[in-house]
Specification:
This protein is mainly alpha-helical. It is built from 14 helices and 2 strands.
């Protein structure tokens, strides 16, 4: 029996030449991912303006946790994300149910709903500047029902509501696509058996669809929080660096951007980045736990 091909294959598998193919990727990870992360953690312990550094220990963290502007940014981030998910996830599920029940046009509707999700955030924010204008589309629509015009971006609460509407519009397509993917994994035989037993359409959804969609809801909720914690570009288009009016659109990433690139307080910005990293890490671990539990 000729063992030469097997020996040659074993030699190729154990040859160090393969590491040359991995080297560019590993170098890129080290330079553009690992080093920036380590540098941010290091800078969070210093007072730095980019040229001069003074070691401050945990002073930056104490400053941030006691800073009123950071608390406002934290509140705004959680407010916008919470109400976005409260509306976008149930509505996305209902839209997915409606699309899934159609015989024709599914692909067209999926593409139509997905367009806002792939629209650049700055373009979406700029579009909503026109929609939320006192003479914009939204006030024109509300006027049909006898409502008075609202200066959406001149009042703190209405500005947050406008940001929520923007977030719902942008995230809806992703929610619909995920729900449709899960709906198509449910065997039609379950529904046919339920109809034979006398169940109506909504009873079948309650007893069959909802239990099998729990992992989809859990995934979208956790991913929604992770993405929401990083919100910046769309609200920056609406409210600028300081999240006007009255910092009602100031988010955690906006706080980091302002302190780092506006005030050149890189130590404070790095400490805020580390706090945001911990928040996102907790949501990520929760997502992994829920996913693992669902698979088991």
């Amino acid at each position: 029996m000729n063992r030469e091909p097997a020996k040659r294959l074993h030699h190729l598998r154990t040859s160090p030449i393969w590491y040359l193919f991995l080297f560019p990727t590993m170098l890129g990870i080290l330079l553009f991912m690992a080093y920036p992360i380590i540098e941010v953690f290091r800078l969070s312990l210093f007072q730095s303006n980019g040229t001069m550094e003074t070691f401050k220990g945990l002073a930056n963290y104490r400053y941030i946790l006691g800073n009123g502007t950071f608390r406002i940014a934290l509140f705004n981030t959680f407010f916008i994300t919470f109400f976005q998910l409260l509306v976008a996830i149930p509505l996305g599920f209902l839209i997915a149910l409606a699309i899934n029940s159609l015989d024709r046009g599914k692909n067209f509707l999926k593409a139509l709903f997905f367009i806002p999700y792939v629209t650049p955030a700055i373009a979406a924010g700029t579009l909503f500047l026109f929609i939320l204008h006192p003479n914009g589309i939204l006030n024109t629509f509300l006027a049909w029902f006898g409502a008075d015009p609202v200066s959406w971006l001149e009042n703190g609460m209405s500005a947050r509501v406008g940001a929520v509407l923007l977030s719902i519009w942008r995230s809806m397509g992703f929610n619909v696509i995920i729900f449709l993917a899960y709906l198509q994994t449910i065997a039609q035989e379950h529904y046919e058996a339920a109809y034979v037993d006398g169940c109506g359409r909504w009873q079948a959804h309650i007893h069959i669809t909802f239990p099998q969609m729990r992992s989809a809801f859990a995934f979208l909720i956790i991913m929604g929080w992770i993405n929401g914690m990083q919100r910046f570009t769309d609200v920056y288009a609406l409210g600028g660096m300081t999240g006007s009016p009255a910092r009602s659109l100031h988010t955690i990433v906006g706080f980091i951007y302002e302190r780092g690139f506006g005030n050149y307080e890189f130590g404070v910005a790095s400490a805020a980045s580390c706090i945001l990293f911990v928040i996102i890490l907790l949501f990520t671990l929760l997502n992994m736990k829920l996913t693992r539990g669902d698979e088991s």
